[in-house]
Specification:
heterodimer, A: 503 residues, B: mainly alpha, 0% strand, flat
Chain lengths: 503, 151
């Protein structure tokens, strides 16, 4: 493994590939720093550009964008009190108060170094945990795969913002979108409603660009409220090594929490950041400072959200299950290059597996250097008017979608799913379960039917096979606990529908 | 329109969608490869799940109808709706080919920028510049660097 990893560094450090990592990280940081734009949008929009590239080059650009966008959100969280991505939500709690006290540069620099530390810890986890996990996943048959997807969907629905019913409904709608077209087993047409264009189903990229990018860009057209922008007057080094010596335990703990949350299928940086922040506050000697400009809070949130990136890649390359929403797009990128992520990837395409590892480390280093060096300019991005960005980015969406199959139908699909994304926002349905349901349904359906055929229709086999049984038990546990409480509320007539808005 | 009414309408619509999917799945005839779990099996399961979950949402919304009356502010949606209409016109033009792609793209960028930034003199100049320079750069990027052919 060590030899493969070193060989991979040799491959990605050639000028062309290295340049793609640096460009990706640079773009990611910029997009992450601009309020209203996010990493999912950037990665989805960049995907069409990579069609003709070598798979490793595509991964280099996209992973760089992923790392950069999560870290870049720190800038708007600190200077504008708006998280650049949901992952930076907890950062706003303390970074903005620090900025108000005249410590904007210190808050940013603490956050950047914490992001880097989180990225390194999760990179170590990726390198050390992926090979044994992939070996373990080789034992999976159809029963285990279906049960794993079931447990992943239950977990995503439970942890998504809003009620669990909404999360499950969003997931079921995503699964529905994956069904039209030719049945992969019997080659029969289904749910095409007589439309020949639907014979091949909905194009993956058209759906992803529509739901991530178009919906966000159209929503961005709404008039923004006037906001207080904190200025960065000097970018001299405001943190010392001693600051991190004091905070090393918080840094390590938050990075490990972020990595662990990242490994959980479909659970993104926001949950990791919330959990790390809450843990840091509960274990702090000065919990009263949290929310008023606590440095511990900034470090915990930023270390954890960047650590989810490496953690989230682990289930993707070892089992083909996306660890976060952006991983859905990375799976799409691999699929376009005829690479199927999963335990066999270590044998069929080891250069891809180790390419992810080496790219992730280099992207984290690039993020650290780039953000520390360009803080003052990054701060100016808060003033970029969205009026000029939105039309050009929408044009990118149209051309990028058209480029996949040279079909205008796909552009209509993109537009329609842009409206679906807007409807989801309006109805407070989370987008995460939708896209993960969409990407996982082909795996789930194939394995469900294969499992039932091989066991003569005996559903009990899912529960009696040991590994599958654990996943089924987990899914049932996750699904029943909140549902029981909902039913109890309904029976008692005390449902008050106070769900927070979906993200 | 109150939020709970929107929820009720959406839940009802999704309930009907679930029923339609369930019915469509159930009506797929078995193929000679079928072993009891054919093409309609999963659509039936998912259609049923959507109806069930939509019914839960409907009950939740009905229960909370009298409590949550958050009105949706129409003016917040005026620009997004107008932008969506402009985008639909642009995509529609790709379908009927009334205007060649890149001139249509320039018009789309110009009108979208004016819509979002207002009809001020500076914004009109920037919109015109974006429409010409921005679209030319995109043309160069996609057709010369990445070979995407668009009529």
């Amino acid at each position: 493994m060590t030899a493969d990893l070193f060989a991979s560094f040799g491959t990605v450090l050639i000028p062309g590939t290295l340049a793609l990592i640096l460009i990706g990280t640079f773009l990611g940081v910029i997009v992450g720093a601009i309020p209203g734009l996010n990493g999912g949008m950037l990665v989805a929009l960049s995907l069409p550009l990579t069609f003709g590239w070598a798979p490793l080059d595509a991964i280099s650009l996209l992973v760089g964008e992923y790392v950069g966008s999560i870290a870049g959100g720190l800038v708007s969280a600190t200077l504008l009190n708006i998280p650049g991505s949901p992952s930076n939500l907890m950062t706003t709690m303390d970074a903005m108060p620090m900025a108000r006290k005249g410590q904007a540069v210190r808050a940013l620099q603490l956050g950047i170094v914490a992001s880097f530390a989180g990225g390194i810890v999760s990179w170590l986890a990726l390198v050390l945990l992926s090979p044994p996990l992939a070996k373990f996943a080789l034992r999976f048959g159809p029963h285990e795969y279906f049960s794993l997807v079931l447990a992943a969907m239950a977990l995503i629905a439970m942890l998504s913002a809003g009620s669990m019913a909404r999360g499950l409904l969003a997931g079921a709608l995503g699964m529905l979108v994956a069904l039209p077209g030719l049945d992969p087993v019997t080659a029969q047409l289904r749910l095409t409603f007589g439309m020949p264009s639907l014979v091949g189903g909905f194009d993956l990229l058209a759906v992803l660009i529509g739901i991530f990018a178009v919906s966000q860009l159209i929503a961005d057209a709404a008039p923004a409220k006037a906001m207080e922008i904190m200025r960065v007057k000097s970018t001299a080094i405001a943190v010392k090594l001693g600051d991190f010596k004091k905070a090393w335990f918080n840094l390590l703990r938050s990075s490990l929490i972020g990595t662990w949350v990242g490994i959980l299928p479909g659970v993104g940086g926001s949950i990791g950041s919330i959990m790390a922040y809450a843990t840091a506050r509960s274990m702090s000697r000065r919990p009263e400072e949290f929310g008023k400009g606590s440095e511990e809070g900034v470090i915990a949130s930023e270390a954890a959200n960047n650590a989810t990136v490496g953690g989230a890649i682990i289930p993707m390359i070892t089992m083909g299950i996306p660890g976060s929403i952006i991983d859905v797009i990375l799976i799409a990128a691999l699929t376009i290059h005829n690479i199927r992520p999963g335990p066999l990837l270590f044998q069929t395409n080891p250069e891809i597996v180790y390419g992810f590892m080496s790219t992730l480390l280099i992207a984290n280093i690039a993020m650290l250097v780039f953000m520390l060096a360009t803080l003052r300019w990054l701060a100016r991005l808060m003033e970029v008017p969205k009026n000029y960005l939105v039309p050009i980015l929408l044009l990118f969406c149209v051309i990028g979608t058209y480029a996949v199959n040279n079909r205008v139908f796909d552009v209509w699909v993109m537009f329609a799913f842009g409206l679906v994304g807007l409807a989801f926002r309006g109805l407070r349905l989370p987008i995460g379960p939708f896209v993960i349901g969409f990407i996982l349904t082909p795996i789930a359906e194939f394995n469900l039917r294969a499992a039932l055929i091989s066991s003569d229709g005996n559903w009990l086999d899912f529960a009696t096979r040991p590994i599958s049984g654990i996943f089924v038990a987990l899914a049932i546990l996750l699904l029943t606990l909140p549902l029981l409480s909902v039913l109890k509320k309904l029976i008692l007539g005390s449902s008050n529908n106070t769900d927070p808005p979906a993200t | 329109m109150s939020r709970s009414l929107i929820d009720i309408l959406a839940a009802t619509g999704l309930f009907i969608v679930g029923i339609i999917v369930w019915q469509q799945g159930a009506s797929i005839p078995p193929s000679f490869l079928d072993s009891g779990f054919g093409s309609g099996f999963v659509p039936t399961l998912i259609g049923g799940s959507i109806s069930f979950l939509a019914a839960i949402l409907l009950v939740q919304s009905l229960k909370s109808k009298e409590k949550a009356h958050v009105s949706i502010v129409k003016s917040d949606w005026a620009k997004p709706v107008a932008l969506a209409v402009l985008l639909a016109l642009f995509v529609g033009n790709m379908d009927v080919n009334l205007l060649p792609f890149y001139p249509a793209a320039s018009l789309f960028v110009f009108f979208s920028t004016v819509l979002l930034g207002g009809p001020g003199k500076v914004n009109l100049i920037v919109a015109a510049l974006l429409a010409v320079v921005g679209v030319s750069l995109i043309w160069a990027l996609f057709t010369q660097a990445f070979l995407v052919i668009i009529r």
